[in-house]
Structure to design on (145 residues):
């Protein structure tokens, strides 16, 4: 049963429901269905288009616009972390801890760099009244020439 309890099997939406409630989000049918798809397989990176395709496969009726809106709501609520890899291309990371990423440019695969294995130094001075929230590093890989 690989990590599932009988209670989880009987109530497949209990964990996503609890997660949404803790984040202060109203658990609509679509949010619950998307949360279940997002968080049922451990930490991962997903684009809106990928999640939309997963929803269609799971017979969850939801528009791509609703998927984008939900991903952005989950990000604002702290359930996801957005990783922008280029203008107009983002992935949403279910691992919200501080860590960096490696992007295989040719395939679009995004992978975590374990926390503590990459040090960032020499940050610029921050203007008065502001503080650094987070530093995101994306190391881009390409095939050798």
């Amino acid at each position: 049963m690989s990590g599932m309890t009988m209670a989880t099997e009987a109530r497949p939406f209990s964990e996503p429901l609890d997660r949404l409630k803790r984040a202060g989000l109203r658990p609509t049918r679509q949010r619950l269905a998307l949360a279940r798809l997002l968080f049922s397989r451990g930490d991962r990176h997903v684009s809106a288009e990928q999640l939309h395709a997963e929803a269609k496969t799971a017979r969850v009726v939801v528009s791509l616009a609703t998927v984008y809106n939900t991903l952005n709501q989950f990000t604002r609520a702290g359930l996801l972390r957005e990783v922008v890899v280029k203008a107009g291309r983002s992935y949403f990371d279910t691992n919200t801890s501080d860590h960096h990423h490696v992007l295989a440019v040719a395939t679009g695969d995004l992978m975590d760099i374990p926390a503590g294995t990459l040090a960032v130094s020499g940050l610029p001075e921050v203007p008065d009244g502001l503080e650094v929230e987070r530093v995101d590093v994306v190391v881009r890989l390409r095939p050798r020439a």
